[in-house]
Amino acid sequence: MKRLVVVLALVLAAALGPATAPAPARAQLRRDHQAPPGPRPHSVTITEFGAVGDGRTLNTVPFQNAVFYVRSFADKGGAQLYVPRGRWLTGSFNLTSHLTLYLEEGAVIVGAKDSSQWLIVEPLPSYGQGLDLPGPRHQSLISGYNLTDVVITGNNGVIDGQGLVWWQWLRSHELNHSRPNLLEFLYSEDIVISNLTFLNSPAWSIHPVYCSNVKVHNVTIKTSLDAPLTDGIVPDSCSNLCIEDSTISVSHEAISLKSGWDRYGISFGRPTSDIRISRVDLLSSSGAALAFGSEMSGGISDIHVNHLRIHDSSKGISFKTSPGRGGYIEDVVISEVQMENVHVGIEFTGNCSTHPDDSFDPSDLPAIDHVTMKNMAGTNISVAGVLSGIEGAPFTAICLSNLNFSMAAGSGPSSWSCSDVSGYSEAVFPEPCTELRDPSSSSSVCYSLASYSAIETA
């Protein structure tokens, strides 16, 4: 009761005017990926706000009230919102700055099956529409907007979106608005997501968009392998982001780097850059384990990926774009990859032709340049690579070094297919296309074959 009285007092204070106390200096998460903030000086438990963890009681208002209450500690070092063991049913709710959301072992935040419990918000400005339909979209189960210094962690607690009903609505064309994600941050910085399991997202599981200084560490993400268009982690127009030591098993794309869609992404103009991905286990039943695009109109660059295990997937690594996208994908280095039971190991395509509307300009041609893949081994691979660029705008400086794919039985003699691409290869088996065997390119084009070795082994 005391907490509820304080909440009411804070509501009145908010109505009278904003707080004027200065925010504390924020801890920065820079490229050295320093440790997240230590324990918060204040802590509350979700049950203090009337929440009931029986899996049946709707707890949207308790979560909203709890977050509103901990805002009062922003100038006092922040606070932790503790979620104990139980099944905590809720609709969508927002977070606040200087907050740690901590899920204890056995704690499950469960998304309501009633779509009315998921708020309706405007589409992202770099997309112009929702994921599935024109117009507004459902807000993610847990969201943060214009926040700093937020930690979502626990003792392997679970966030479960109960996505089956959403997948059924999508298949039967019964959606009124685009599906929600599980966790989404917009225009935020200094974010840590760790030690949690994400299950059954209606759409994407973790979606940082227009964010910087983000670390995703030691998470497990799973959806049904026949769920439609469910992605794992989607860094979108973000910078200085790290994904490491995680396991992702989804239907569509396990990790997908994006930066906006056609003219909306071009106009918004915020690239995805300075991304580090390391030590992750990826499975994508119908898409690519690691994907770039196809929505990449704001540009994607300075991407370093190493120590991947990709298995039982339709595609291993995919670069996707289309005329009308604009933008670029450049300065990408992927190394130390193990693939097992993958249909297409490497894909480049310039004909991923979906568009948000008919107002795209087909003369906005994207560029893919300076992509290096090295030290990769695969077993039971059906097709080593399908590389298809854009006529008149070929993909350039695609560099392959020390790749060895053991082909699946009956895969046929043609392991590679190439058009409108150019680059260089060395120590690649099966032997790649002639377009990737330009002997004059090794030093002038494939600058990254040697120059990043020290970085990746450091």
UniProtKB/TrEMBL annotation:
Signal peptide region: 1-21
Keyword Signal belongs to the record: yes
The keyword Signal is annotated on this UniProt entry: yes
Protein name (record): Polygalacturonase
Alphabetical list of InterPro entries matching this protein: GH28_Enzymes, Glyco_hydro_28, PbH1, Pectin_lyas_fold, Pectin_lyase_fold/virulence
Membership in a protein family: Belongs to the glycosyl hydrolase 28 family.
GO molecular function per UniProt: polygalacturonase activity
Gene giving rise to this polypeptide: LOC100191454
Gene Ontology process terms (BP): carbohydrate metabolic process
Domain of life: Eukaryota
Keywords (A to Z) from UniProt: Glycosidase, Hydrolase, Signal
